[in-house]
Amino acid sequence: MTDTRIDVRSPADASIVGSVASLSATEVAAAVTGIRTEQPGWETLGIRGRREWLERYRDWLLDHDDEVTGLLQAETSKPLQEARLELAMSLDLINYYCKNAEAFLADEHPRGHSVITKSKRLTITRHPYPVVGVITPWNVPLLIALADSAPALLAGAAVVVKPSELTPLATQRVIDGWQEIGAPGVFVCTPGAGATGAAVVEEADFIQFTGSTRTGIRIGRRAAERLIPSSLELGGKDAMIVLADADLERASNAAVWGGMFNSGQACVSVERVYVEASVHDEFVRRVTQKAWTVRVGTNDGASKADIGPLISSTQLAIVTTQVQDAVSKGATVVTGGERAQPQGGAFFQPTVLTGVDHTMQVMQEETFGPTLPIMKVANATEAIRLANDSPYGLSASVWTRNTERGREVARRLEAGAVNVNDVLSNLFLFPAPHAGWKKSGTGERLGGAAGIRKYCREQAIIESRITPHDEPLWFPYTPGKHRLIWRLLRFMIARDANRKLRKFGR
Ligand code: ADP
């Protein structure tokens, strides 16, 4: 085995909270060979057999909830409430796919579309990609690892997970749990940094990636060269549009939670806000008041902090630079704006900015910090134009008491999911596709049947109900047979009597 290890540090105080091996490409290849060998047996178990294992696994996760969320907290310093929410959502998702996988993966028999094909019986069947590679980021590491792996396992694939080098502990522990329940050896963790992830891309048959657009492009390019599919969930710059008739109390509470949940380190967090002029000042007043009460620190359930630190000093530098860039171009810091003291870790103050515009990084680039830049707009049309003026298109929200208008605005937004009078709720709704537009990604996660079918190759099996010795389309091509077939086809395809019956020339 490798003698290279990665130390995992707490973002709250930089203390070492654990370490993992960093796997070489050769070790990744060996791990994948191992699960690839086991995969046919796993597939043969059938959906019911696999579901039983997933249900036992859910129970193991429930029985180890404190240990798992403890590790997750140690490596992310997120509040206990959010660590538990990650686990709860993962378990809910396992239940959802356990309940529905059989129906989602069942054979289908679409009918032939024309008289000519009526005599054929079609079966669409689904076979898993043998090995699915799941590469995860550091912001919600446990949820993403489990939410991407569970449907793949249920589909019959073997799964290799490469967790972020910043947050591998909880993921590695839960994959150990799969072994502890004695389940077939089709689920493995290969910790390491970018090079280990690249090795997974070389070995797997399907890549499910969540992370930066920059890395997603590299992975997508390599996957294309290998002719394997990839599903990429990348960055976001989610816009919130507050119309003049919105419930400002709910909208301002949502802006603060949606923008600062997980210290703003969520791909679907509120990253920028557009507010109609007549309610702008009142909205800013309420948001500021609420942001002021957001408590920064660590939270083990007993202490009372709402947001923890950013994941690393690199992330702290990005957020600081973006706020400074906005200020240098004329933005006003209404509250926050700086590193939070005295904790000493990568903490940043809850920050509200006004007077922002699209020349500023904070309105254009993903921030991933507890920041809410708020921009005054003349009307909904301007808000929509600005919301769409972004390379990203993950999700968005619209706020209005007129829900019909909310839906109309939603349809005009270039985003994979739009919440009306809500934030983040698309993530809790497993039948909803989570699919980024533009530079936010390709492919999707969740989305009901699509969320599990994507891990399968479709196969069409066509049977002839009638089997004469010869078929009209087969050799030999004689003029008489040709004329007859052409007449029949014309009759079938044309939609008016003249063309249906036009005299056949040659
Ligand atoms: P960030 O820069 O925010 O950490 P990344 O997109 O670089 O986000 O990382 C997301 C995941 O992708 C991590 O698990 C990381 O180790 C992995 N990764 C980074 N570079 C590569 C690569 N070239 N190929 C495969 N995985 C990679």
Using brief descriptors, characterize the structure shown.
506 residues, 17 helices, alpha/beta, 3 domains, Aldehyde dehydrogenase, 7-stranded mixed beta sheet, binds adenosine-5'-diphosphate, Aldehyde Dehydrogenase, Chain A, domain 1, Aldehyde_DH_NAD(P), Aldehyde Dehydrogenase, Chain A, domain 2, Ald_DH_CS_GLU
Number of helices: 17
According to CATH, the fold-level topology of the largest domain is Aldehyde Dehydrogenase, Chain A, domain 1
Q: Return residue spans where pLDDT drops below 50 for at least 5 consecutive residues.
A: none
Within CATH, the superfamily of the largest domain carries the name Aldehyde Dehydrogenase, Chain A, domain 1
Provide the spatial order of strands within the biggest beta sheet: 11-12-13-10-9-15-16
Question: What is the residue-averaged pLDDT?
Answer: 95
The main β sheet shows up as:
7 strands, mixed
Q: How would you describe this structure to a colleague?
A:
The structure is a single chain. The protein has 3 domains: 28-234 and 449-457, Aldehyde Dehydrogenase, Chain A, domain 1; 238-423, Aldehyde Dehydrogenase, Chain A, domain 2, CATH 3.40.309; 472-506, no CATH class. The protein has 506 residues and is α/β, with parallel strands linked by helices. The strands form 6 sheets. The chain has a 7-stranded mixed β-sheet, with helices on both faces. The chain has a 6-stranded mixed β-sheet with strand order 6-5-4-7-8-19, with helices on both faces. A two-stranded antiparallel ribbon has the order 1-2. It contains 17 helices and 21 strands. Helix 14 (403-411) links the parallel strand 15 and strand 16. Residues 135-138, 162, 164-165, 193-194, 197-198, 201, 211-212, 215, 218-219 line the site of adenosine-5'-diphosphate (ADP).
